[in-house]
Write a structure and sequence with these properties.
By secondary structure, the protein is of the alpha+beta class. 28% of the residues lie in helices and 33% in strands. The longest helix has 30 residues, at 84-113.
Length: 526
Amino acid sequence: MATPPRPTGQGAVAWWRWAWRTLTSMRTAVLLLLALALAAVPGSLLPQRGVAFDPGAVSRFLADNPVLGTWLDRLGFLEVYSSPWFAAIYLLLMVSMTGCVLPRAARLWRSARAEPPRAPTNLARLDDHRQATVRGDPSRAVEVAASYLRARRFRVVVDGASVRAEKGYLREVGNLVFHLSLLVLLLGVAVGSLFGFEGRVIVVEGGSFTNTRLQYDEFTPGPLTSDTALTPFSFTLDDFAAEFEPSGPQRGSARDFRAEATVLRAPGGGPEEVTIEVNHPLRVEGTKVFLTGHGYAPVVSVRDGRGQVVFTGPVVFVPFDGNLSSEGVIKVPDARPTQLGFEGFFLPTGSVDPTAGPRSLYPDLLDPQLLLTAYTGDLGLADGAPQSVYRLEKAALDQVMSDGAPFARALRPGEVMTLPDGQGTLTFESVSRFANFQVAHDPGKEISLAAAVALLLGLTVSLSVRRRRVWIRVTRPAGDAACTLEAATFAMTRRGPVPDELTAVLAALPCIEPPTATRPPHARED
């Protein structure tokens, strides 16, 4: 991984060649890979905009850290994976790896197909050198040696009175597969990032979802994702069941939760009943629907000051602890003579601690309570500005008061909250469950998976296979009736020659005296 030399000559061409060699060098590829890993660290440590499983994380972080959060947001640290600087590092890595891997792959391919090279002049300098005297026909010794090595899957070339053989070409094939797989892996990640998407949707029991962009609560598309390319399907959440640990140190932990749904996989298709569980998503033509969370949606009915029912149905309350203590709001823009808003908590097993405040003691519905306070005024929905469904915009709202204190009530199912001065009522009818689904489509995942498997196989082969060369040469010294046979082996990896391999080769040769081992002149004594 030597640093490319400085440009030679003058002009833009010389500098372009130097820049290309620098960018496509192995050193630069490794540095860019390290830079990409470091650039991904903020994406793991800081909340990210558009992440499906917690869409409100960035807003809370900015509210808690107004100065630091603003600067981090400006620099792109709150949306790392879609920031220009992260894309630039990834693009440079792709170019560097392409320019580095493809020429290297061509060299490995040529190496894997090459014939064993000719023997060096001085075989005694190699790792393992043997010398013997041939008393019989020297051509017979050469022929037997070649046959023996071919039987051991050596690639053999016979040149008159010498044999050159090589084994372990599979190591170069493994290296070739490893390098190409690394490039294909990056390509698969790029395809998934460009053409895939990830979204989040909350569905209440009895509710439905259709795979269109407008149906998502949060939707994070790739730059080249088309709304028309979304897989057509829909499903209805028929029932949601959750089981919790009733006692012991894990009390309250989820033991199992599953969603029973009815799926229509294509327009005009028949309904299909499925069960969606953790690690068992619904699969529809490359799109996966994961069950990622759940909670409660109290069912309420609201009458305004005229006595008319202006709202009825479930309202999602977002959990904020392990016992599913939840917070949420109810907006009633159709109420008259003034709009109504409610804010508060839902507790599956309610308890109000004077210090800690309202909290649930257990995540199941043992003692459900709905704690609400009321507001009147303008909810701000008519001006067209986007609002969170989980937060009240209180700029134009007045909190309802009673006897000089904020009006608040704790309700159990079936109880009614009556606002002062005949402003309306709210009835806590019942409790429904909701499920949080993450919908993801990654067209590059199959490519990435195949590349990752091939990468591991190639790396395993390249590390486990020993590539080595064997040379056998028969010479007849002047004035000597006997021929001298020299044999040597050379390991092309750091693991050294295969023990006793050369001894086995010589033992198979006929008409030779016992060989003597020599040591290269530069080898040290053990």
